[in-house]
Amino acid sequence: MEILVSKVLDPIDIQILDILQKAANISNAELGRRVNLSPPATHARIRRLETEGYIDRHVTLLNQEKLGFDLLCFVFINTDIHQAEQLESLEQSLEAMTEVLECHCLTGEFDYLLKVANKDRRELEQFIRKLNKLGISRIQTSLVLREIKHSTVLPISSPERNEEKIQN
């Protein structure tokens, strides 16, 4: 049985993570070429990064508009629930709603922020009715007119490397 040793991320690990978050379908051979490692060494590093939890999952990002999800919304909600068990139940309900792309617990004026994808206003209305059944005391919905930036890329590469790339 192979034992994977945990260690601090080195510059090659950072490069691998940065490349994979931008192009998850890159081949091991190409990734190895870019970071100057053999394909087996690259594969071993990826496995270690997965095992240690640096790589959460591999996904394919779909085009919302082509699939008919033309109504992207941010829904701010407040609740009067304060008991831990009831809050956990509420959060589980929000997590189970397929329309909810993201759910964040907030400080400030609202308790939660939801990013919600619907196909049309009718679906949004049905979604809001579902929220009302959960004991939500206040809902504020903002419709997205257009998206300026959408990214899942974390800024993990060093700023010096980014400046060098821009200048070249």
Features:
168 residues, alpha+beta, Arc Repressor Mutant, subunit A, Alpha-Beta Plaits, 2 domains, 4-stranded antiparallel beta sheet, 18% strand, elongated, disordered C terminus
Produce the secondary structure layout.
Layout: H1 11-22, H2 28-35, H3 39-51, E1 71-79, H4 84-96, E2 100-105, E3 112-118, H5 121-132, E4 136-143, H6 159-167
Antiparallel strand pairs: 1-3, 1-4, 2-3
Compact description:
With 168 residues, this protein is an alpha+beta fold. The protein is 40% helix and 18% strand.
CATH architecture of the largest domain: 2-Layer Sandwich
Strand content: 15-25%
Strand order of the largest sheet: 2-3-1-4
Assembly state of the chains shown: single chain
Largest sheet properties: 4 strands, antiparallel
Order of helices and strands: HHHEHEEHEH
Unreliable residue runs = 161-168
Distance between the termini: 46 Å
CATH-assigned fold name of the largest domain: Alpha-Beta Plaits
What does this structure look like?
The chain is α+β, with helices and mostly antiparallel strands. It has 2 domains: 11-60, Arc Repressor Mutant, subunit A (Orthogonal Bundle), CATH 1.10.10.10; 71-143, 2-Layer Sandwich (Alpha-Beta Plaits). Helices cover 40% and strands 18% of the residues. It has helices spanning 11-22, 28-35, 39-51, 84-96, 121-132, 159-167; strands at 71-79, 100-105, 112-118, 136-143. Strands 2-3-1-4 form a 4-stranded antiparallel beta sheet, with helices on one face. β2 and β3 (112-118) form a beta hairpin. It is elongated, with a radius of gyration of 21 Å. Residues 161-168 have low confidence and may be disordered.
